[in-house]
Description:
By secondary structure, this protein is α/β, with parallel strands linked by helices.
Amino acid sequence: MTVTIDRHGGIAVLTIDNPPVNALKTAVRARLAELVGMLDADPGVTAVLLCGAGKLFIGGADITEFDRPPESPTLPDMIARIEGATKPWIAAIHGQALGGGLELALGCHYRVAAPGATMALPEVNLGIIPGAGGTQRLPRLIGLAAAIPVIAERDLLDTDRAASLGLLDHVIDGPLTDGAVAFARNLTGLPLPVAERPLPDPGPAFWEMASARIARGAKGQSAPLAALAAVRSGVEQGFAAGLRIERETFLRLRASEEAAALRYLFFAERAAPRPANLRSIEPHPVRTVGVVGGGTMGTGIAAALRNAGLTVVLSERDAAALERGMIAVRGIFEAAARRGLITTAEAETRMAGVTGCVGLEGLAECDLVIEAVFEDLAVKRTVFADLGRLCRADAILATNTSYIDPRQIAEGLPAPERFVGLHFFSPAQVMKLLEIIPHPATSPETLATAFDLARRLGKVPVRSGICEGFIGNRILKRYRARAEAMLRDGTPHSAIDAAMRGFGHAMGPFEMQDMAGLDIAFLNREAARQRGEAIPEGPIELLVRAGRKGIKTGGGWYDYAPGDRTPRVSDEATQILAPLMGSSAALSSPQIVDQLIGAMAEEGRAILAEGIAASPADIDLVQVHGYGFPRTRGGPMFQTDRKAKP
Ligand code: 3HC
Ligand code: NAI
């Protein structure tokens, strides 16, 4: 049964029971629609209370239904029936009322909530706008200034704010159903229908400001501005027209590629932290984590661990390096405080949970140790040999290596079943991706612990098999190689970067190299040559030898004004690169995008065929969360899959 009925005297208590999030699937909507008529006709019922079973009220419409045409009764129809009922309906909210769940509550005549509940319209995260009256009813209840951030800008209302804005009629301390039944008993009639409440037009300046603000925060997505447009049409043309325009926009966006991509990522992101084969395995308890190496990665990892409440011991090789590392970690917390993300007191608390040590002896009591020292096999092996000797017998040992084969790093370790690769991305306290790389001997418990850690850190974990560069850097290599091949054929690098920006990337492949510094790639290539690999001289060598190492030297592929990261086309770089440039006609932007995404997807298919990645969605998660692939495009595998479909 998806909706249960309980009677408390004249009050009918309906409980939506559709685990895990009480989504409003067709069967729930049909049952509720049927109950409106039944309860209206029942002389023994004076009011109807609507509750959610389990930990929340309602998580929204059922997103799994969005790939099919809407089924009757639709959510707007069902809500209209409730709104038109002759007896009062009261939504009793606990946990969350999201999307269609909040819209259903807005269609009820009254709303009460338990303390600590959250009310939100997260539809724009899915590339859509509220489609069941949210853009029309919410402004009429709480005013435009408070409603627009909820509708178009991901603002969340907690119980206190919702009550102060008039969204809630009552806050219930104590048992929710009892309190709500008591509230219902005291009702004397129906309030003024929301549709009839006044909503004056605040004038063009208000709309312009809202529109500019929303456009700035939209991250290239079209839904936020479409949501504002729906609100505005309701103000200008009235409630009924607003509802119609909202629904049309919702259905149009629901069918868009952008919404399909965002839905795909929604489900992929939820599946990622809980691989089916690890669900029954208890992770190892982790409270204190050692981080070896206080450089770029070690400090970011330490901050990420502290942000999740774990205690950290940071190890460096000497006192001076340790001091630099501790200052860098402190700098991360202080920057968060300056940006208003945490209080200064909280920044201090976070720093107080990081202790430093020189050498590895101080890590003896850690539950987990993450190594982030130089990318050098001999250095890493020495570190692990010492860790194997010094750490607790049940401690898990992890490496953050980018390229070195974890099997080589773990050689000689006393307990390789407790060894795993944890590949964070820079800056580690920000980037969501965590590639988890099991060694052939890694135990299921160690792997389950790695996924559990990712969950606690709020990361998106993706399991990768062992190959050069794992999933992400391997695809990056292919992407860059394809871009360089295009350049050699005759397409200017500025055209290639512009095409990728047009597609939605924050920057193109050459701008990315300028940002990271060309010297790193140059040195890697030199090292590979010394190992005997045949790597031809290319544009990187030409640019670096001319002193153009990227932004840090004022120029690389582009020129940069001091203190300004805006790339400017460089005559000098053009001249340096001229001998390499082929004479074919330059490719168009769509051709560039097609070829680069195609190359990434082709590498992705090879990675799948070799069993390095478990699914195309995992590859797309790597691209979106580690390499700036635009969310609205889903990922390279999603893109080529869509193209392949008729
Ligand atoms: N429809 C279908 N399935 C949903 C869902 C939804 N609205 N929301 C969550 N799920 C599924 C998840 O995919 C996951 O499935 P799995 O166990 O098979 O992986 C399961 O429910 C549990 O989800 P979470 O892991 O996210 O559980 P949490 O407890 O961490 O979070 C939540 C619960 C806060 C409700 C979170 O799931 C969430 O934010 N859900 C999406 C809310 C949303 O976007 N609602 C708007 C939907 S669109 C809409 O309502 C349109 C309307 O305007 C017409
Ligand atoms: P880094 O050079 O900034 O930092 C390395 C730190 O390790 C230095 O501070 C050094 O003093 C310290 N160190 C060296 N030997 C040590 C020892 N025996 N004990 C304690 N500390 C020691 O290097 P970075 O960039 O932080 O990289 C570290 C690791 O992370 C490398 O394996 C790298 O491949 C990997 N990585 C780097 C990424 C990046 O973007 N920089 C991204 C993902 C992984």
